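ok trying again, last paste got cut off:
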Amino acid sequence: MTLRTGYAQDTVTPALDRPVYLAGFGQNRMAASVHDDLFVRALALERGKTRLIAVALDLIGLGRHHCQEIERRIDEAAPGTRLFLACTHTHHGPDTIGFWGPDMTTSGVDYEYLSGLKDKIVATALAALAEVQPVHMRHASVQVAGVVKNARDPEILDEELTCLQFCPADTSVPLATWLIYPCHPEVLWEHNPHITSDYPDSLRRAVEAESAAPCLFMSGAIGGMMLGTEYVEGGGLRDRHVYTTGPVKEEIKKEIQRVTDYIKETVFPLIG
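nice, full thing came through this time. structure:
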């Protein structure tokens, strides 16, 4: 049977006209500005009567009841469609769980934002489904040594970067690239006050520039997987905890680019 694929994306960056509590570290982290947009990215896969939409969100996470609502709404619009929804787990996006408000007992969730977010996820997923076309898939994986460590159990280490690429049936020019890599998007650490998807933004941009096609990124089974000691010992990340509000945007560019440059050396051979 022929595999058919469609892609769509939209921004889900919260407006800063009211407080935005950043999720992932301690409480009362307020967003000061937007470094790069957060996205919902959807890849629809259809083969025969089976339809699946993979959705990646630049968010810390999303509660099960919200996911079930999204799944129900998609099924109502496209009966029988399965949903695979994953958040990148960025530590620099809005609180969508309720753990990171002004204090330990107060939620940081903006429910008006959350309602609009769910609308966008449903619309983007269905837009991807509406764009399906015949494709062939190519895939590869590679070990990316020296970037990550396991902060919880050093004996268990996952350094595998997986790449799936979907090309229209009559060409080798890709329609979309799907990357999976296990590393917490928390490179900028706890005092970064700027909304950002962290290193996935820089990595996606690099892949998109190289392939001329959109890139969907998922973090995989991150567990305790985070930036490794090589980068900490090599320069600025050793002092990332002193970031404040001054030149932090330039520091963001330097440190994320540093990680991304290393990773993309292994990505480009996969997508060529």
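cool. Residues 229-248 have pLDDT under 50 and may be disordered. The first strand starts at residue 3 and ends at 11.
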